[in-house]
Design goal:
mainly alpha; about 775 residues; Leucine-rich Repeat Variant; disordered N terminus
Length: about 775
Amino acid sequence: MQHRNLNIKCKIDVENETSLIALPAKLHCHGFVAQLEGGTWMVLITEALLKERDKQAKWNGIPLLLQKLYEHSHPNSDFSQCQSILKEISPLLSMEAMVYVTEDRKAAQESSFPNTYTFDLFGGVDLLVEILMRPTLITQKKKQKISDDLIKDCLSILYNTCICTEGVTRRLAERNDFVLFLFTLMTNKKTFLQTATLIEDILGVKKEMIQLDDIPNLASLVSSFDQQQLANFCRILAVTISELDTGSDDKHTLLAKNAQQKKNLGPSRAEINQATLLNIPGFIERLCKLATRKVSETTGTSSFLQELEEWYTWLDNALVLDALMRVANEEAEQSSTESSDESGLANTSTRTQLPQSMKIMHEIMYKLEVLYVLCVLLMGRQRNQVHKMIAEFRLIPGLNNLFDKLIWRKHSASALVLHGHNQNCDCSPDITLKIQFLRLLQSFSDHHENKYLLLNSQELNELSAISHKANIPEVDAVVNTDRSLVCDGKRGLLTRLLQVMKKEPAESSFRFWQARAVESFLRGTTSYADQMFLLKRGLLEHILYCIVDSECKSRDVLQSYFDLLGELMKFNIDAFKRFNKYINTDEKIFLNQINSSLVDSNMLVRCITLSLDRFENQSDAKVAEVLSECRLLSYMSQMSMRMSFLFRLINIIHVQTLTQENVSCLNTSLVILMLARRKEKLPFYLRTLQQMEYTEKYPGFILNNFHSLLRFWQQHYLNKDKDSTCLENSSCISFTYWKETVSILLSPDRTSPCAIVSYIEEAYMDIDRDFCEE
């Protein structure tokens, strides 16, 4: 009797040539038939052996089911039997996937998932990919048609195998033809959610970022999406427009980034993909509508419940559904008495009524994805184009209208928490939405005149009045702001943000992002009117309370508050007066905070240094009064203090450890020396640094390091792609003066009194070493 064979490709490691020759006979003794094909053994297993081994190995019949699936999916088959076979396989895999998703991540990784492993081992993944793609590979006029349900089952099983069996996702990611094919399945609404989730998983591990231009008919595909599909599609876009994270802190050094930029002469894949999206007609407008629509404007209840039902079987969203359903049970009694008018279904039964909190969470999940994409585009090369579009489509007024009811809404007693997380976890949708919203505001305001759209008309008038009262010209951007695009209502978005910022608990994770968002409004050319607008709303007192009185321990939060305080007080004599009044007897506590971490506080040190220099050159009586009374200005006016700051600023950074976070220390040290140069005191400062080195019994270590840092500064800031206006605007010192000062300090002439080399003895000279990324 001849037994049927099941074809399985597997790689078999052998020790030497003798074992390689003996292998077929060895396999045959155990009921296997083997053939060598290009270094891979094609193993043929008899059906009888398979049944016998199935019981012993506890394969749960998966290999036999795959054999049946193989037989019923040949090129001329109609796939009619395939779905019933997949219905038998699917529960075996989905049980393991559910364990993986619902268990603690550590426990899940330590568990074994024999069913998904067996499914992949016996070629199940490759077979499903072949079934899905077969209609596209056949050249016959009459192409095979695969039912939507069969496609959904294939995708669901593939996804479950991906999350449970290591390496499957990466293998699929290597098949560009399959990845691009998946996008074609998104045109079908019935298979959209399964397809989108599998694509997201695959792109997350893909070594090379996909190029959106390669997706067939991308523009028509996007235009075919309804708003819910577009929001889910944003999850995929997030992977394609964000620069790939190198995953190593070392790679985030400026040295490494500069080296990478030299290698990548053209735009990156992410930048090309961003440009592709912006060329899709109506894309940004639709995102703005999604981001700003109210909960009551969302689609009908029944369609959403259908989507929730799909989420239940699609495990990537099972945790979200878990949370939603808990709230649904809590509100079931209340919802049964509510009118169904809002959903537009007058006779909807209690079972299909959708509690308001579920609607809100549904909308939050969508807005998260949309705001992320808009935020990335705002930080990209086409920033000005994106700014123009989102202003035109009234994104900011729309978000202002949602602020109280959705973005910063008060939590109910049954606040939604995802499985395995707590209410204050940064992973919860409510918290993530707030952080994403704050990041968007930061990107929107940073060094851009559109920042005044965060105000309403009355607040813009207030800025004008402040300028008139101070007898200074109005800022051009305020005058030119299109009043039809600003915020509506009694308060603009910036004012609303200040209100919630002042109520935030000391331990809140939002403090950092709130401070960054407000600071970005102030960044750029210093505006007295902007500063006074915020000072009048008690911002300075709030910041000082947080630094001095709230016992804030977070370094990130402290740094963000120091940076914000620097922008708020810079060149503003009224701010220094208010500061002195609040601090009064607490200056030692405040100065200890500054001195405890200069990396965090150096922007404030720069602000004080610049402001003191300006005030000392003014003859105004009010300025003279504040100069004589303000302890902070008096402290910085002492030469010993300035030299101490300069010495430590240079000492805490090195070329190999420079990052976007600490490079400001280098620029602050340069500001101190530029101001010294203006007063012809540069030689005195350099000589004092030399003396401080000798006091530390380590001659040359500070000045050699500073020389290297300045050489790097030239490479970094004199790059043609580098925007130097930030340095110029923040210091009110022309970039030409920055460049000249660095050149003078780096002069090789040892007779020059302003050259660093003049203050390093030959025996301790170490200035010619090349710095490169190891």
